[in-house]
C-alpha cells in the first residue's frame, strides 16, 4: 500500500465516524444491526504472499475486535439472520484454504480466548499435503494443514468447513460432475477423513464472478448449513441465512476498522441473488454434516 493511502483511510474513518455511530444507534433501536463475517488466510511473519498477516497484527486485530464487538460463531450469525433481529455489534471469524502456519499462533490464540472460528480447507491439499496452486505459481509452495492438525482443531472447538476439492473457481465450471466433486465430494471426503461434521462451505475467491447458482444449489442439496461468499458486505437480520457474505481482513489495521464499523461503502454492497429452492425441488444428494465428537484441547 502506498504511503498516502493509510492517511486517506484514517481521514475517512474519523471523518465518517459520527455518521457510523448515528447509524449504529438507529440500527440498535430497530434491532437491525448488521453482522460482519471476516475471513483470513495465513498468519505468519514471512510475508510469503499478499494474503499473509503477521502474528503481531493478527493479535492486535483480535484485541481490537474483542474490545468492541461480540465475537460469535457462524451458526449464531445465521440464527440472528433467521430471527430477523440483532441489537449488538458482532463479528464472526473465519479462515480460508488451510495453511499449516496458522497452527503456530493464530488458531491457538483463538482457542485460548474461546473465540469461535470456522476454518475452511481445500480437501485435496489437506488430504495429500499438496501446496496450493496459487502459491506454487508464485514460486512459494507453502505447507497445508495435516489431517491431524485439523482433527485437534476440531476437537478444541474450531468448526472445519469445505473450501472445494481443488480450490477451484466455481464460476468457471460448467461440467456438472466436476462441479459436484468440488462442492459435494469435497465435503464428503473431508468428513470421512476427519470423522467430524462438515457443515459449512466457502467459495474460493468468492466474488460475484466466482459464484454460481448451480454451485449454491449443490451446496444446499448436499446438506451444508450455509455457503459463504467473499466479496465483502454485511449480513442483515432478515437476509436468507444460507448465503453468508464475508469481508476480507489483511495487514492494514485501519482498513479493518473502516470495514467492521458499519462502513457506508460496505453497507451498500450488492448481494449475490440466490434464494434456496422450495422444499422438494432439490433433493439432498448427501448428508455432509454428521454427529460431533467430544472436544479436547490443543493444536499441534
What's this model, at a glance?
The protein has 300 residues and is α/β, with parallel strands linked by helices. It has helices at residues 4-30, 55-68, 74-83, 106-112, 123-128, 133-136, 147-155, 176-194, 213-222, 253-260, 264-267; strands at residues 36-40, 42-43, 52-53, 70-71, 90-95, 117-121, 159-162, 200-202, 226-228, 243-244, 247-248.
Description:
The structure is a single chain. This protein is of the alpha/beta class and 300 residues long. The chain has a single domain, classed as Alpha-Beta Barrel (TIM Barrel). The chain contains eleven helices and eleven strands. It has helices spanning 4-30, 55-68, 74-83, 106-112, 123-128, 133-136, 147-155, 176-194, 213-222, 253-260, 264-267, and strands at residues 36-40, 42-43, 52-53, 70-71, 90-95, 117-121, 159-162, 200-202, 226-228, 243-244, 247-248. The strands form three sheets. Strands 1, 4, 5, 6, 7 and 11 form a six-stranded parallel beta sheet that branches. Strands 8-9-10 form a three-stranded parallel beta sheet, covered by helices on one side. It has a two-stranded parallel sheet with strand order 2-3. Strand 5, helix 4 (106-112) and strand 6 form a beta-alpha-beta unit. The radius of gyration is 19 Å and the shape is globular. The chain starts with a helix and ends in a 33-residue tail after the last helix.
Given as residue ranges, the uncertain stretches (5+ residues, pLDDT < 50) are 291-298
Oligomeric status of the shown chains? single chain
> How helix-rich are the residues, as a percent range?
25-40%
The N- to C-terminal Cα distance equals 34 Å
Amino acid at each position: 500500500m502506498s504511503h498516502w493511502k493509510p492517511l486517506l483511510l484514517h481521514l475517512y474513518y474519523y471523518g465518517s465516524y459520527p455518521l457510523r455511530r448515528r447509524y449504529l444507534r438507529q440500527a440498535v433501536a430497530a434491532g437491525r444491526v448488521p453482522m460482519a463475517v471476516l475471513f483470513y488466510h495465513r498468519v505468519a511473519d514471512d510475508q510469503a504472499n499478499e494474503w499473509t498477516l503477521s502474528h503481531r497484527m493478527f493479535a492486535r486485530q483480535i484485541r481490537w475486535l474483542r474490545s468492541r464487538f461480540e465475537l460469535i460463531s457462524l451458526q449464531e450469525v445465521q440464527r440472528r439472520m433467521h430471527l430477523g433481529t440483532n441489537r449488538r455489534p458482532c463479528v464472526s471469524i473465519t479462515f480460508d484454504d488451510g495453511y499449516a502456519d496458522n497452527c503456530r499462533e493464530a488458531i491457538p490464540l483463538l482457542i485460548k480466548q474461546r473465540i469461535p472460528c470456522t476454518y475452511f480447507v481445500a480437501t485435496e491439499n489437506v488430504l495429500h499435503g499438496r501446496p496450493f496452486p496459487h502459491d506454487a505459481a508464485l514460486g512459494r509452495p507453502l505447507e497445508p494443514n495435516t489431517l491431524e492438525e485439523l482433527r485437534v482443531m476440531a476437537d478444541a472447538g474450531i468448526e472445519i468447513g469445505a473450501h472445494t476439492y481443488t480450490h477451484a473457481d466455481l464460476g468457471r465450471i460448467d461440467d456438472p460432475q466436476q462441479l459436484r466433486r468440488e462442492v459435494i465430494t469435497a465435503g464428503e471426503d473431508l468428513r470421512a477423513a476427519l470423522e467430524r461434521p462438515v457443515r459449512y462451505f466457502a467459495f474460493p475467491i468468492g466474488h460475484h464472478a466466482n459464484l454460481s447458482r448451480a454451485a449454491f444449489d449443490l451446496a444446499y442439496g448436499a446438506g451444508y448449513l450455509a455457503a459463504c461468499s467473499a466479496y465483502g458486505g454485511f449480513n442483515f437480520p432478515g437476509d436468507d441465512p444460507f448465503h453468508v457474505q464475508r469481508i476480507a481482513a489483511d495487514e492494514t489495521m485501519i482498513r479493518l476498522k473502516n470495514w467492521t464499523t458499519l462502513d457506508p461503502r460496505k453497507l451498500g454492497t450488492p448481494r449475490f441473488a440466490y434464494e434456496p429452492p422450495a422444499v422438494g425441488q432439490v433433493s439432498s444428494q448427501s448428508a455432509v454434516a454428521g454427529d460431533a465428537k467430544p472436544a479436547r484441547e490443543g493444536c499441534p
